[in-house]
Amino acid sequence: MLVNGIDHARLSGAESVLEMICAAARTHADRIAVTCGTRSISYADMMAAANANAVRLAACGVAPRDMVLCALSTGVELPLAWLSVMIAGAVIVPIDARWPAMRLQAVVAATGARLAIGDGADNAALAATGLQLYGIDVELPVGQADAGVAPPTGADLLYGFFTSGSTGTPKCALNHHAGLVNRFSYMTRRFGQGHVVYQNSAPLFDSSIWQMLWPLTGGSVSVLPERRDHWDIDTVVADISRHGISMTDFVPTLFKLLVRALENGSVAPVRLASLRNVLIGGEEIDPASVHTFRRLMPRCRIINTYGHTEASIGMVFHEVRDEDGEHIPLGRPIDNTYVRIVDADMKTMPEGEFGEMAVAGICVGAGYLNMPELSARAFVPNPFRDLPGELVYRTGDIGRVRADGMLEYGGRTDDQVKVRGVRIELGEVSLAMKACFPQVQDAMAVVVPNSGATPAWRWPTRHRLRSTCASCGGTCRGTCR
């Protein structure tokens, strides 16, 4: 069974995300583009600083299509860094300098990166990898107009996000500008412009892409938290109230914490009065918390989203309605994207029957960096004459098409899990346990809700797995990264 979004030959005249942002900056030069705490920068100043930094990146040896590691976690420098990389014609690869040394070395080796953008706090860890370090300067004098390279096209890579890998090696999912141009154009068509968007996701997570860059394509404001060392409900609520946030994104686990705070009175609804749209994604949605929030905040819409880093992030949307009850669907694909329910042989399943969700259209990414076999298994030649594109992405997610045409989620075909929004391959955990304990011949990782067991970072595996630890209630915030 096939469900597809509206076919628009071209939603935007732009080739790339950079072109969309440049156009918005020309139209809204004096508007505030980015805010972080008490610091703000206008569209004009943002583009001037990004161009100046791109010139310096090029002088440091960054060439078109190079991968540039970005270890910034927040600040007005973060979007400037991403813009500078795009202007230089390079590819954005977000990292965390606090990752275990082995993981950092693996990332450097996989990407061939020669330069990392940091903020000075973790320069020692980055320098230990042999990388050249670069710090974004907001106050650079304006020099030449650009970095002297051709602007990116829709076919050029925009980002590479590292995710957990079942082979024990993190995999870097790549995506083109065209897929994100389509996603951003759809969001503008659906939600309009003039938003104040809160970047509620760390830049290591793919949803940070839309939270930070989509507002900049239409003259809206992107608001970043001052601190990113831990997620704190009080800080999020304070930022929403202080900056008049109208739109943001939550994973269901953290959204439930917000709803609980609204229910018990620790957060007054008036502090969230500016919210108009909340996107939910990254995990299976919790109907009870969603409907409670809608009752307490009737002016705010809840949009369930579904998608993958490998396929332009979110590409299925659904605005939650009263009639959804306890069975909230994933929704329908956005413009120029398609989902087909297939069996193991890529044969189409009948309506109402569960099968694997296969994604097609402009959203399909460029595979995994330096992993041709894994890419070939997940990104298969398109066997369907009625679907555009050369490749179809096999998501590994089980789903079906309901009688009303909505997609419904039904689990996974493999051992990938989500723990508080963190995507984890249990196979990677198992391999790390065996590597750390030579006397162990085999190991299995399972998910045990609220087990109270000793966290993985207290065992030798912490040097391999700390990058994917997800803190639970009562865990020392300084311990879990």
Automatic annotation (TrEMBL):
It holds the Pfam family AMP-binding. SUPFAM superfamilies: Acetyl-CoA synthetase-like. Residues 24-369 form the AMP-dependent synthetase/ligase domain. Coiled coil: none annotated. One of its GO terms (cellular component) is cytoplasm. This is Amino acid adenylation domain-containing protein. GO terms for biological process: amino acid activation for nonribosomal peptide biosynthetic process; secondary metabolite biosynthetic process. GO terms for molecular function: phosphopantetheine binding. It comes from the Bacteria. InterPro entries: AA_adenyl_dom, AMP-bd_C_sf, AMP-dep_synth/lig_dom, ANL_N_sf.
